[in-house]
Design a protein that fits this description.
CATH superfamily of the largest domain: ATP-grasp fold, B domain
Largest sheet: 5 strands, antiparallel
CATH topology of the largest domain: D-amino Acid Aminotransferase, Chain A, domain 1
Order of helices and strands: EHEHEHEHHHHEEEHEEEHEHEEHH
Radius of gyration: 20 Å
Helix content: 25-40%
Number of strands: 13
Strand order of the largest sheet: 11-10-9-12-13
Number of domains: 3
Distance between the termini: 28 Å
């Protein structure tokens, strides 16, 4: 498709950039990839970026902001943007931004996340307010979008204090009930143009060493003092039993509805509810990502659900680009900027 649309799609070269760039090209946009010099050759290999801009560090994004504005670029947020720039710097950016940027602070702060999800009526895991309250298996999660890095399990105050010593610089964490079940990551898209919520797909994360520890005999785990960790290495596509889909769609809509009151105009574009489904099919939501997640990357050519709806390849990256294109066509671009 010829690049003839008046806006340019820009994205940091990390996380889900390839998918976003591919989707933008498929919808007829010019594209810009911003990356560190060491990654430039990699992104050139795919020929998805019409232009590649380099920065010595993503944290210095403001150095190229004027250039991006002159090129009529719109920035697409993802997890690496949040991790490298931080919420305060993102809120100060002058470049047009897809989505409600103020909603990102509700993702980055687990207390604010919980307030949001509770108001949406979702079932949430129990929170322990201090280590001395631990009387069951818990998972300790650090704030931010670092892909599960550093998370650990504990089953008593003594166990907690032993393991937290390995994270001397981490002061901001949550102690959360550990629930046994299947981790499911549900991908949604809410269009501010169409006022419609869609289910885009589902994934399961492959986490190290939580998912590989089963290959080590129990005696060897004890002898080697192997500790469970949850750094995300990759993503595995899933389909969910069809009888659960209406409930999952309803949950996503409740989250959107509450967001519109918390931070008008509310959450739109892609987001993800991260949940555990137990043997009784009880759904417990433990986190929300208020932007595209890397778990959508297995669906570059679309998921079973987007194929059913669109009957053409439709990744989350392409769905973002189509939402922007439809806003241009309807002369309501302000609806997709926040």
């Amino acid at each position: 498709m010829a690049n003839n649309l008046p806006l340019t799609i820009a994205v940091l070269g990390s996380h889900s950039a390839l998918q976003i760039l591919k989707g933008a090209k498929d919808e007829g946009f010019k594209t810009i990839c911003i990356c560190v010099p060491a990654r430039k050759k990699f992104y050139e290999m795919f020929n998805l970026a019409d232009e590649i801009l380099t920065l010595d560090s993503f944290a210095n994004f403001e150095k190229i902001e004027d250039e991006l504005i002159q090129k009529k670029a719109i920035l697409i947020p993802h997890g690496s943007l949040i991790e490298y720039l931080g919420i305060e710097k993102i809120e100060r950016l002058r470049i047009p931004h897809y989505g409600t940027r103020k909603i990102l602070k509700w993702e980055a702060d687990r207390q604010k996340q919980r307030e949001w999800l509770e108001k949406a009526g979702l079932n949430l895991p129990k929170i322990f307010h201090k280590p001395e309250d631990i009387n069951q298996s818990v998972i300790i999660k650090f704030h931010g979008a670092a892909g599960g890095r550093g998370y650990f399990l504990a089953n008593s105050p003594k166990d907690f204090y032993k393991k937290i010593k390995k994270h001397p610089n981490e002061k901001d964490y949550v102690i959360q009930e550990y629930i046994v079940g299947v981790p499911v990551y549900a991908h949604y898209f809410y269009s501010q143009v169409k006022k419609e919520l869609e289910i885009m797909g589902f994934d399961k994360r492959y986490e190290s060493n939580a998912d590989s520890i089963g290959r080590v005999a129990a005696n060897d785990q004890i002898t080697a003092d192997i500790q469970t960790s949850y750094t995300i290495i990759g993503n595995i596509p899933m389909t969910v039993r069809e009888s659960l889909l209406p409930k999952l769609l309803e949950m996503g809509q409740q989250v959107v509805n509450v967001s519109q009151k918390l931070e008008p105009p509310g959450l739109f574009g892609p987001f993800c509810l991260e949940m555990i489904i137990d043997h009784n099919l009880k759904i417990t939501v433990f986190e929300i990502s208020a932007r595209i997640v890397a778990g959508t990357n297995p669906f570059i050519n679309g998921s079973p659900y987007t194929w059913l709806k669109y009957n053409e390849p439709m990744s989350t990256g392409r769905r973002i680009a189509r939402d922007i294109k439809e806003a241009l066509q309807k002369n309501c671009v302000e609806k997709i900027l926040g």
